[in-house]
Structure formats: C-alpha cells, structure tokens
Amino acid sequence: KAYKKKVPHGFGIFAKEKINKGEKVIIFGGYVMDEKQFESLSEKLKSYPFQIDDKIYFGLSNLKEVEDADYLNHSCDPNCGFGGEISLIAMRDIKKGEEITIDYAMCISSPKVEDMPCQCGAKSCRGIITCNDWKKKNLQKKYKGFFEPFLEKKIKS
To answer: 126: buried, middle or exposed (CB in 10 Å: 19+, 13-18, 0-12)?
Structure first.
C-alpha cells in the first residue's frame, strides 16, 4: 500500500491508494535486539530500529534488508500509529499520494537515542525530537492507543 519517494530530507513512504482510518498500513520485518546489539550497529543502521521495550529494539542488521517501509518519517502531526509492537495502523483516513508518518514520541524512550531536529513542517512542530516526548501529557492524550505497547503501559502506571 506504500512506495518510497525522495523528499527534501531523504526519502519517505507514500500511500499508493486511499487508506482508511483503522486500517493496517505496515507490518515491519526485522530482528529483536538488545541494547548491546543496537549499539554495535553502524550509524546508518541505527536510524532504522525502533524500541519495543525499555532496552529492546526491533530493526535490521544489514543494509541489504532495507525495504520501502523502513523509510518511515516522523511528523508532529502524524497519520499513523502503532497497532502492536511491529505494525502501524492509520489514525485517520490517508489520501492517495500522502506521506505516511508517525510521531517518534510513540516509540522512543531511550536516552541512547540522541535528540534530533524536526523537519516535519507541521503547524504543531516541536522543533526537536527527544527521548522524553512520550512523557508530554498533550501527546499522551493525542496518541492514546497508538504508542508502542511498552510505552502505553508506562503511561498508564
């Protein structure tokens, strides 16, 4: 349902056809890895995994494994969220040709993931993406039910 396309800051993935709210958009392929395995990845490979628990990541171990879905970009006004540890679902209807995005706050809590400048251009842009964004009450409310399951548990407790 998606294809890779060049964007100003690299590549992104875009909807091949209209995607309805609640529809599964992506099921990621990859490997479960601990912090030590994550740390041993090349700098390029470190940009693909996402957290599925406090010290556990899910991602690729080789650049040859990169697929279009791995070019998922951040937006402070995303159209997708997590529907489980390795799948994304549409948070709203997505138009054909629209970029498919998530907010990295939905899956990052490790201080091992460095702060990064945000280039999303959304009206609600935070300007910087940090490992503590998931703690923001406004984001917890906005993304309730769309965080990685381990973050949903942290928010509830």
So the answer is: middle
pLDDT at 148: 97
pTM of the model: 0.91
Could you report the per-residue pLDDT of 60-110, keeping only the tens digit for each?
Answer: 989 999 998 899 999 999 999 999 999 999 999 999 999 999 999 999 999
Vertex 47 angle, CA 13 and 83, to 5°: 55
How confident is the model at residue 7, as a pLDDT? 82
Tell me which long-range contacts 102-105 makes (C-beta under 8 A, separation of at least 24).
Answer: 102/72, 102/74, 102/75, 102/78, 103/74, 103/75, 103/76, 103/78, 103/133, 103/139, 103/143, 104/74, 104/129, 104/133, 105/129, 105/133, 105/134, 105/136, 105/139, 105/143, 105/147
Residue 41: the pLDDT is 94
CA distance 38 to 111: 13
With bands split at pLDDT 50, 70 and 90, how would you rate the model's confidence at 5? confident
